[in-house]
# Entry
Amino acid sequence: MDNLTIAGCLEALHRGLPPGVTLLAVSKGHPPEAVEQAYAAGQRHFGESRLQEAGAKIRALRQRCPDLEWHFIGHLQANKVRPVARAFAWIHSLDRLSLIQRLDRIAGEEERCPQVFLQVKLRPDPGKAGFSSEQLTRHLPTLNHLSHLKLRGLMTMAPLGLEPDQLHRLFSDCRQLAHQLRARLPSAMARDFNQLSMGMSRDWPQAVAAGSTFVRIGNAVFGSR
# Structure
C-alpha cells in the first residue's frame, strides 16, 4: 500500500472504533517504510511477533519515530524473554506462570517495567495456548507479588469458525473473567488491570461490542503480506 492508502485505511478504522479503544496495527511482515507511513498518519501502536524482524524495524525507526510503542503479540519463548523485555513496551502473550516469573525477574535485571496481558483460552482450540479461568484464579497469590511487570488485563483469541453470537459470548466471558480477577488484586495493581486485548481483522466488531480496549489489525491497515 502507498502512503495515502495506509492513511485512508487507518482513518476508516478509527472512525469505526469507539472512544477508549486502541488500534494496534500489526506490522509483522511489512517493511519499516510501511510503519513509518502509518506513523506519519498518526498511528502510534504497532504489533510484532517475530523478534529478529521486529528488532530490525525498531533500530531503523528509533530516531524517526521516537514515540512509537511496540507491542509483542507472538508466542514468547523462554529463551527470548530478555531481548523482548528490552525491546517492547507491551507484551500480549503471557500464557504460563513460569514465563511470567521469568519475565518479572529479567525485567528487574534490565530495569524495565513492561505492560503485559495474561493470555487466556476460554474455548477449546488446539492451535492456541493460554490460561484457563481456573488456572488464573489458582495463580493469583503469585501474580499479586510481581514487582517488575505492570499487569494491564487479559488477551484472548477466538477459534476459527465461530458465529457472531458465539464470538460475542466468548469476548464477554473474557471481560467477566477480567472483572473477577481485578476484584481480587491488590488495589494498586487493580487500578492498572483495566484493559482487554481482544479482536482481530475478522472479529473486532464483536470484540469491541463486548468491551475490548485493544484490537489487533494487520491486513486492513497494510494490505496482504
Observations:
- The longest strand covers residues 150-156.
- The mean pLDDT is 95.
